């Protein structure tokens, strides 16, 4: 079968179903309504992967930006104070509420979880920028929720909807194999990796190009990062282990070998299973739907 057909099946497995999308919408609405009725929140908005159709089953949270004030400069107060106030206003929900360095997390009996981000809006309204807690939780960093949306939308306009499917599969690979990248970093790296493309290549070749950029990014290769010629929208230190780095290298090697040797064709079920498990994780059940597309043919 073609790897492109396999990727389509993997995307079907990892993307949200209509029922799950409805649950996301309803849960977000409940939290936003409570934020509007209590606590320090001026307004709130849904941000993150749910707004870009890149959310994935099992791992994606509902991200809500809770605006609690305005400032032209980084706020002087400690973000932890605002996060604690938000947590207090959300405790009446039927959820486990916990406060982290950057967000208030709401864990419900059924997924998805919700993460509420305390934000101070830049009073220069033309920037679309907010101040949110940094990774340490002790100071503030600049955050623009629309910039990644605009990057992704631009690439989808050129490459088509298969670009979104590539992102979803790559994000699932990242989480299922404990690579440790932020999901938004995967999305931005994908936009960069295919930035010069005028049409979408095969999934296999696109994944190879993305993984090359991922490897350069996580290893901090100075030349490779310099060639990117740009600053990432949100600074986030890579938190992966040596095993995670080895996973990136191994997956890239396997994908490149398939590109060169098979030209997008996996000849037998053993190779299909190898690609499937490399993306969904070593314990994934291989469940391939048979079709006329399974017959090897020129790509």
The gist of it:
This protein is of the alpha+beta class and 299 residues long. It is built from 10 helices and 7 strands. Strands 1, 2, 3, 4, 5, 6 and 7 form a 7-stranded mixed sheet that branches.
Overview of this protein structure:
This protein has helices spanning 3-14, 18-37, 79-90, 145-159, 162-176, 183-193, 203-219, 222-228, 242-262, 269-280; strands at 43-47, 62-71, 96-99, 103-107, 114-122, 130-133, 140-143. Helix content is 47%, strand content 14%. Strands 1, 2, 3, 4, 5, 6 and 7 form a seven-stranded mixed beta sheet that branches. The protein starts with a helix and ends in a 19-residue tail after the last helix. By secondary structure, the chain is of the alpha+beta class. Helix 6 (183-193) packs across helix 7 (203-219). The longest helix is centred in the last third of the chain and has 21 residues, at 242-262. It folds into two domains: 3-15 and 148-294; 18-144, Beta Polymerase, domain 2, CATH 3.30.460.90.
């Amino acid at each position: 079968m073609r790897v492109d057909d396999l990727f389509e099946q993997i995307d079907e497995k990892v993307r949200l179903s209509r029922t799950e999308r409805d649950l996301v919408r309803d849960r977000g609405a409940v939290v936003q309504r409570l934020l509007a009725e209590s606590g320090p929140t001026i307004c709130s908005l849904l941000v993150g992967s749910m707004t870009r159709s890149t959310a994935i089953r099992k791992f994606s949270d509902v991200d809500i930006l809770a605006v609690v004030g305005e400032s032209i400069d980084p706020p002087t107060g400690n973000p932890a104070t605002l996060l604690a106030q938000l947590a207090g206003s959300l405790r009446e929900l039927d959820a486990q509420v916990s406060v982290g360095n950057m967000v208030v997390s709401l864990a419900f009996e059924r997924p998805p979880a919700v993460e509420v981000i305390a934000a101070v809006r830049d009073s220069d309204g033309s920037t679309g920028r907010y101040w949110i807690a940094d990774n340490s939780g002790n100071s503030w960093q600049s955050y623009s929720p629309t910039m990644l949306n605009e990057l992704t939308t631009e690439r989808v306009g050129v490459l088509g909807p298969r670009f979104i499917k590539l992102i979803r599969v790559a994000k699932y690979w990242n989480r299922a194999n404990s690579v440790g990248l932020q999901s938004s970093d995967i999305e931005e790296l994908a936009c960069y990796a295919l930035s010069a493309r005028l049409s979408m290549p095969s999934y296999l070749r696109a994944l190879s190009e993305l993984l090359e950029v991922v490897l350069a990014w996580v290893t901090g290769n100075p030349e490779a990062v310099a060639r990117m010629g740009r600053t990432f929208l949100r600074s986030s230190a890579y938190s992966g282990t040596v095993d995670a780095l080895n996973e990136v290298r191994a997956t890239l090697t396997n994908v490149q070998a398939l590109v060169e040797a098979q030209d997008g064709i996996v000849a037998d079920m053993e190779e299909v299973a190898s690609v499937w498990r490399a993306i969904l994780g070593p314990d994934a059940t291989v469940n391939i739907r048979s079709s006329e597309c399974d017959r090897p043919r020129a790509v």
